[in-house]
Structures are given as C-alpha cells and as structure tokens.
Amino acid sequence: MVRETGLRRKPAGRAIGDGAAVGLPVELAALRGRVADATLLWAYRRAQDIGVGGDEVLIHAGFVTQDAATAAVADHLGLAIADLSKPVLVADQLVPGVLRTQSLVIATAGRPRFVLAPRGRGVRRLARLLAREPALAHRVELTTPERLRGRLVRQASGYLARMAAFGLRDRTPRHSAATIARGRALVGPLTVFAASLGAVIALVPAPALLAIGALVSLVFLSAMALRLSACFIPEGPVGEAVIPDRHLPVYTLIVPLYREAAVLPHLEAALCGLDYPMEKLDIKLVVEPDDAATRAAIRRRALPLCFETVVAPALGPRTKPKALNAALPFARGSFVAVFDAEDVPAPNQLRAALEAFRRGGPKVGCVQARLVAENASDSWISRHFAAEYSAQFHVVLPALAALRLPILLGGTSNHFRRSALEGAGAWDPFNVTEDADLGLRLARLGWDTEVIACDTLEEAPVSLRAWLRQRTRWMKGWAQTLLVHGRNPRRILRELGIRRTLGAALLTVGPFAAMLVHPLTVVVLARDLWVRTWGAPAESTVLALAAALSYTTFVAGYGATAAVTLVALYRRRRLAEGWILLTLPAYWLLQSLAAWRALIDLVVDPFRWDKTEHGISPRRVQQGAAVTDSAAARPPLGPAVAWR
Predict the structure, then answer these.
(1) Which GO cellular component does the record give, naming just one (predicted)?
(2) Rounded to an integer, what distance in angstroms lies between the CA atom of residue 443 and that of residue 408?
(3) What angle do CA 380, 610, 603 make, to 5 degrees?
(4) Which of 212-216, 222-226, 260-264 has the highest mean pLDDT?
(5) CA–CA separation, 171 vs 175, rounded Å?
(6) Residue 274 pLDDT more than 90?
C-alpha cells in the first residue's frame, strides 16, 4: 500500500529557481543539498545520454523516492503539495486522459486549480511556464504519479473495470465475440451440422462422396498453395537498431499473470535483460484478484521501480485479453508489447521492433516477433509443437507480411503502436484467441503488420493433457474469430479487398475446417480404397478424376505441411529434428479431436479460458533454480493498482 504521509505541504508563492546558476536542470537543482553533488552530476550525464529527466534517473537508481523528489521540486518552485485524501471532481470518461497526461484540472469556486505530477522534462516546462506567469504558482499543486493514479483508481474503479470487460462490446459490438450466438442458440445449427455429416457418411454413395470431397479439395488445395508459396519467400533480416538511446520512446510491456509465482524469478531475469534503458521501461504485471500467491511473490521480490502491479477487475470473463485491457489505461509508453510469464525475448527485441516501425512507416500498427519453443526435446507432443511453431513463425508469417496479407498474431511478443491498438478497440475479453482476432481487426482497419527475425523463447506443452486443453482453447477462439469477422462478408470484402479477403479466408477457414473434416476424409478414403480393392464397379471419368483429386488433396495436405516445416527447420539449422514429421498423421488426429472439443466448448462454455501451466518443463525447472534472488540489492517495489 502507498503511504500517504510522505509529502510535506509547501506554501505557494515562494521564489522560483531554475537551476541555471549551477548548470543543472531544475529537477536536479531542486535536490542540491539532499543528494551528493557527484551523484547529481552522474544523473545529469545519464539523463542526457538516454533522454530522460535527471530525477527519473535518481528515482530508478534508488537515490531518492518519488515523494522526496516531488517535495524538493515543490519547495524549489514555491508550489503547494496537493491534498488527494479526498475525492476530486473528474468525470469517469476523462480518467484515461488524466492518467496519460499526469495532469488534472479541478474546478473551484474561483479559477480552476491544476494538480500536476511532472517528471524530468515536464518539471522543466513547468519551471519555464512559472517564470513567464508567476501568478500561476497559487493555482498549481504537485503530487506524485503514484498518488494521482491511486486517487483516480479509487474513484473510477467501476468505470475502468467496465471498460476493461465491456469496452469493445459497447463501442463496436460487431467486433466483439460477446455478441455472437452462443449456448442454446448454437445447439440447433451444430446438431444439424453433425446430423448432416452422419447422414452423408451413412447414406450417400461413395462416388457422390468423392465428388463432394473433390469440391472441398479445391478450397484446401488453395490454402496449401498459399502455404507452399511461403517457402519461396525469404525471412526479412533483423534491422540494425539506428535509434540512439536518447530518442528511444517509453515502452510499455504488459505481462498477464495467473498462478505464476514459480516463474517470477525467470520472468524478471528475462525482462531486466532487455537492451533498453530501464528508465524508459514501463512493465505492468497484471494479476487476478484472487491470486494471492502470485501477488505475495511479487511483493517478496522487491522488483525494480519500472515494474508495476495491476490487479485485473473481477467483472466480466476471466480471460487474458481482459487482463491486458485492465493495464492499458495505466500504460505510459507510446509503444506497447505483450509477453507471457514464461517468455524470454531476445535482448534486442524492443529495438528491433522500433526499427521495423520506423522502416514500415505510419501504416505499420503491429510488429510480431518470432516464437521459438525451447523445450522441444521434452516429449513427443512438445516436439510436434516446436516444429509447428517453426513453420508458423519462420516461414508462414514472414511470407504473409511480405505479401501484405492479414496476419493472425501469436499470443505473445506482439508490439503495437499504441494509437493503432487503442483505435482498434484493444483486446476482446470475450475472444479466447484475442491475438488472432486483433490481428484481423487491425488489417480491416487499414493497419499493416510486420514480422521481425527476432526470437522469443517459449515453453511448449509437455503433456498431452496440457496440449489438448491449450489447443482446444485456440480452436475455440479461431471459431469465435470466424463467427465475428464472417458475419458480414460484404463489409469485410469492402475493408480488405478481394485479394486480402481471400487470403484471410484461406488462413482462418482452411486450417480449422481441415481439422474438423480430417477424420471424415480418412473414413471416406479408406472406404473407397476398400471398395476398389475388393472389386469396384466401373465408374465414369468424372468420378475417377474426383477420386484422384481427393487422394491428391489428402496426400498434398501432409506433403505441404511437411515441406513448410522442413524449410523452417532448415532455416533454424534444426533439420535433424524433422523425423518427428513421420508421426504427423497421429498429430493431425489429435488436432481433429481438439477441433471437435472446441465446437462443443463453444456451445457449453464459450468464454472459459483454459490456462496453460508454465514452468513445468524440466529445462525451465533447472533454469529457474539457477536464477538467483537478488531482491535485497534492488530499489523498492513499484506501486500497485487495485481494481474492484
């Protein structure tokens, strides 16, 4: 809890100092006599190098607290300290803007009063303003960003919770999975669909089945052709970071956590290992209100001040996208990235993403980094998962970006231009694959997505049970995404154009439909082979061609998947791991099981989030044991924001 006694009230109207006489900026000049001169000089030089205020350097290094820095500036500029112990008059809908600008205008009986929480260059601008308009000193009061945020959250927690849970649904219902048919409304259509499949298998003659299969094959062959074409498009190079430290923006990293106490040391080491000034990192750890173990583990670790804990609201579905939405209003950065608890991003990933934004221009709204499963050797299922990730992130997604086709994002290592993210409505709390949905929504709104050749190490599921739960959730989310974006074909055609709409359809409908019909395809082709083997009647040329096309599609499906995966493994210099593809038929049958479980779940419990457990891989357990706990040597933990 933030203490309320750290600031001393200063009377307004004292002489204003600007620090010029001693050659220090005002935020450091205010601390003379409280911090050693050598330390002030060091802070000044580092602030110049990385483009922040000197007070921010001192606060992050632990030489001064936020309260002490604010009190010193207020004393130096002759300003009062704001009393935020009582509610302030501010409309709920204005709270996100106040959080972003760190400034609040309070209407009084006379002229308005200004409550500011400046840091660094904001302090310098305030000093220059007061030098021009000394009379303003009686109407300006200072506080810390932490106290201003705490006051606003206490007042507007209900509004912020509603926005996190229902903001997208209320603003643009056509983009929300909350407004699609569910529960009993889906029972009828799905029953008809299942009954029709059964009738087709039982009643329709084999030749007719082959003809129907041939028509479906044309769709699947188109999707395979698109995937195969990706093999001939090279990955883009990692852009050399050309942005100097002083011009780097503040970067917000959002990490949703649920029952992740065991992986916190690993997560801290990964994020603190990023090649980025800590003073410009804004890391939000989002925890659930009933996850006392993770919250206690965060408090025990005494993380650096760039870490802040946000408690997600209990209102609405308990999903990762709602947790992400809960943190977004508190983000300080103009760029926002999402990471999972087990992620280990490459140290240069933030700089590489910024370079991709710079090269791509203002139309690039998102940058996706590559995901790599680092524990492929743990089990049979983790080997398949790792091979699948290699194909997706080293071949398919880079090609889609090069072709300017819509990209269904991976669930982590997404880097967003904040204006694009907020303009798109942020994440849909009711979609359990919020990444795929948001990627398609960004494309519909005219934003491009780039893929960078920069890795994030992830943990693949080790057990079949964990994989099945995760894959069922993914496929349920893909079904939700299909229902959301496919309910108005004319609109999406107008927004994306013919080429990009067809690409999006092949990428979304194709894989999911293929997994649904794969068992049926196996049965039909096996039945046809049986008939042919034991004396097939003469058939027309058309039916013979249809049969040939169906067999070709079946074999090509495996062949295309194997080809894309082998190209990906070759690019990663892991071609020796390609033997796992010999068991691809078994893996596809498991995917079909997950697809049918997803359809059932879509009816029974559409918004349930089946959490993937992290930190259980033997490799990760060993790594976690090797991470030393250095909490005692760190500055105090950053503030916590609690929602109710």
Answers:
(1) membrane
(2) 10
(3) 115
(4) 260-264
(5) 9
(6) yes
**What are the CA-CA distances from residue 272 to residues 48, 155, 268, 593, 630 (Å)?**
22, 33, 6, 40, 12
Is pLDDT at 638 greater than 50 in this prediction? no
pTM of the model: 0.88
- Cβ atoms of residues 613 and 467 within 8 Å: no
Kind of pairing between the strands at 448-458 and 344-345? antiparallel
Under DSSP, the state recorded for 35 is B
**Residue 487, number of CB atoms within 10 A of its CB:** 13
Q: Name the residue type at position 343.
A: D
Residue type, 376: A
Q: How far is the CA of 256 from the CAs of 117, 237, 295, 327, in angstroms?
A: 27, 30, 12, 9
d(CA 313, CA 577): 44
- Residue 87 scores a pLDDT above 90: no
pLDDT of residue 530: 76
32 secondary structure, DSSP code:
B
What is the Cα–Cα distance from 171 to 168, expressed in whole angstroms? Answer: 5
19-36 confidence digits (pLDDT tens): 443 489 999 999 999 999
Reading phi first (left if > 0) and then psi (alpha if -120 to 50, else beta), residue 538 is in beta
CA distance 479 to 596: 11
Residue with tokens 């997505």: 449
Assigned CATH class of 176-644 = alpha beta
User: Sheet harboring 281-287: ordered strands across?
Assistant: 344-345, 448-458, 364-373, 414-417, 335-338, 251-256, 281-287, 307-311, 640-641
CB contact at 8 A, 328 and 95: no
Residue whose token pair is 């209990």: 314
Q: Identify the band that residue 182 occupies on the pLDDT scale cut at 50, 70 and 90.
A: low
Cβ contact 615:374 at 8 Å: no
Neighbours of 199 (CB within 10 A): 10
pLDDT digits (tens, 9 = 90+) for 406-421: 999 998 999 999 999 9
Q: Which residues contact 501 (CB under 8 A, 6 or more apart)?
A: 492, 493
Contact 213, 550 (CB under 8 A): yes
Q: How far apart are CA 77 and CA 17, in angstroms?
A: 6
Amino acid at 514: A
Instruction: Give the model's pLDDT for residue 549.
Output: 73
pLDDT in tens, 486-516: 888 899 999 999 999 988 888 888 788 888 8
Residue 89: beta bridge partners?
A: none
Q: Supply 217's token pair.
A: 């094959």
End-to-end CA distance of the chain: 15
Do 132 and 71 form a contact (C-beta atoms < 8 A)?
A: no
Distance CA 63, CA 353 (A): 32
How far is residue 491's CA from residue 602's CA, in Å, rounded to a whole number?
A: 25
Q: Which of 38-52, 222-236, 290-304, 474-488 has the lowest mean pLDDT?
A: 222-236
Distance CA 437, CA 427 (A): 8
